[in-house]
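Bench notes, afternoon.
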Amino acid sequence: MLKTFQQNSSNFDMDGHDSVMDFETEEHIGYTPPVSNNAGLLPQKRKNRSESWNHFTPMPSNTEMSKLAKCKHCGSLIKYNGGTSAMLAHLRRCSDNPDNAVNVTMHKPSSSSMENREAVVNSSPSAPKFDQEVSRMDLTKMFVAMELPFQKVEHPYLHRFIYGLQPKFKFPSRNTLARDILKNWDVEKAKMKTILSQNCRRVCITTDTWTSTQDSNYMCLTGHYIDNNWKLQKNILNFTQVTDYTGEIMAKTVKKCLNGWELNRVLSVTMDNASSN
């Protein structure tokens, strides 16, 4: 019996080794990794995260237009296979897109955008020819008519506004603007001299005087006349400072102003009700 056991044990060592190896090999080959709980779920469709999808509607996926998107503003169909850059480009061009009317940046345009804007201005057949001197003179007239301080010419928002209209315009400094206004005064004075000499027979003069809070005395000289069209006109001829309100000084000041206008056809001079008059 012991002999039989040893024989069987020997047979187990010889044959059992191969049996164990075969079992392990089969177990390794037939091994299946554990399956995740989500393995049976279908992959989720990626959401449209681009800002452009707020303005587009994708076409049905089961049609020939599955890679097209419809613009919510104008109804155009734009292909988006490979990205949304085409849709973004369409939004910038779409005339029905309300964002295009209010999308104004407060930063200075780049040099490339400036060149493009200049190209549009120069290429437009209806755009008038730009003249720096004429535009600069118009700027001085605006400051005079609106009674603006000279320093306002350096305001960045004014520069931004004019830059959007004409990038070529070069702004003058406040000192240059003051000199331009004096030059404009000389031009307007020459025009006024022509009007007084050719469009009226007689001129009536009125004066108005007052004292400022700094105790400085001023006089305003105004001319009143009827032009060749029988319309009553009046123009301020002088605004000057006087040393005193005595009759003698006032008379000399009025005479000096009239000589500066070469005006010798004065019908009357009316003063205000100051006691010195």
